[in-house]
Specification:
about 350 residues, Rossmann fold, alpha/beta, 12 strands, 2 domains, 4-stranded antiparallel β-sheet, 8-stranded mixed β-sheet
Length: about 350
């Protein structure tokens, strides 16, 4: 692991991002808080539609507006609130200090420009260097991300590259200005398993060598287990659990996290059927009160439907948004009182 310090580099506090439609305000991200320290790899996990990507777009100031906008909370980067930054200020931060690798490289790369044109443009925009120097930096970065024949590839167009190569170009483009924070939104989704492993290894290497903090957004717990130090589990726009990777895998507290871990196939055992959590993620804004996971939870009781649980924290810093946790705490307290 890299030398992550305990200094929060990016701090998201009570972030609320909504989309305004004919049906009214739809909250996609609802009071989300987390932080990422210098040089740390933080995983944000959850099914599609739970608000992970909207959270990352909010940080980058790229929520499509209209219909979306950040309606509350703060995003502190080096103590500067990005929700209050001007578009001009965001342009200097974006790509230079906080960079993002998008899910689908083909939609992020411009099909009519060569790879070289696109890479050198990023460098010249942020670093104010000449064409020759920008070209040398682009070649150096292409080699760092493990692309062969870098000089030749710079003359190619995106469609001439394979999916894995395009994804590496995206990583090179994101890392070319040595950002302090790298947001990777499902960076390995469309890739085959061997390329996936290489991309993750590469991100860990860049994290260690350049001390870049990485925010890894994924639905794949296997990726998180081998890459991240801490996990934030999101469900229906809210954080439902947060803690260190070992702790969450060993002792998941929230029924949703337990369900996600159970859904991962285990190669050691022969299973006739893979486990899947019943039901699906509710439509944003459809649940106004109660726990959003209650309808899919086998442990749900009356209180879960009428009250919204808080995010409870244990002494070790493990957080969970579940009434079962408070019930267990009360039981333990009662047992100790009886003993006492």
């Amino acid at each position: 692991m890299s030398s992550s310090s305990n200094t929060p580099l990016l701090k998201v506090e009570n972030l609320r991002t909504s989309f305004f439609t004919d049906d009214g305000e739809i909250p996609a991200v609802d009071n989300v808080s987390f932080h990422i320290n210098e040089g740390e790899i933080l995983g944000v996990v959850g099914e599609s539609g739970c608000g992970k990507s909207v959270t990352s777009l909010s940080i980058m100031g790229l929520v499509p507006s209209p219909p979306g906008r950040v309606v509350g909370g703060s995003i502190l980067y080096d103590d500067e609130d990005l929700t209050r930054a001007t578009e001009k200020r965001m342009r200097t931060i974006r790509g230079n200090e906080i960079a993002m690798i998008f899910q689908e490289p083909m939609t992020s790369l411009n099909p009519v420009f060569t790879i070289g044109d696109q890479l050198t443009e990023v460098i010249r925009l942020h670093k104010k260097v000449g064409k020759k120097e920008a070209n040398e930096r682009a070649i150096e970065m292409m080699k760092l991300v493990g692309l062969p024949r870098a000089e030749e590839l710079l003359r190619n167009y995106p469609h001439q590259l394979s999916g894995g190569m395009r994804q590496r170009v995206m990583i090179a483009m994101a890392m070319v200005c040595d950002p302090k924070v790298l947001i990777a939104d499902e960076p390995t989704t469309a890739l085959d398993v061997t390329i996936q492993a290489q991309i993750l290894k590469l991100m860990r290497k860049l994290n260690q060598e350049l001390n870049t903090a990485v925010l890894l957004i994924t639905h794949d717990l296997g990726v998180v287990a081998e890459t991240c130090e801490r996990i934030v589990v999101m469900y229906s726009g809210k954080v439902v659990e947060e803690g260190r990777v070992e702790e969450i895998f060993k002792n998941p507290q929230h029924p949703y996290t337990k369900g996600l871990i159970q859904s991962v196939p285990d190669m050691r055992y022969k299973q006739s059927r893979l486990y899947s959590i019943p039901g699906s993620v509710p439509k944003p804004g459809s649940i106004r009160e109660g726990c959003r996971f209650a309808a899919r939870c086998e442990h749900a009781f009356d209180r879960c439907v009428s009250e919204t649980p808080d995010l409870y924290e244990t002494e070790s810093g493990h957080k969970t948004r579940c009434f079962l946790y408070t019930e267990r705490e009360e039981e333990a307290y009662d047992r100790n009182s009886i003993k006492g």
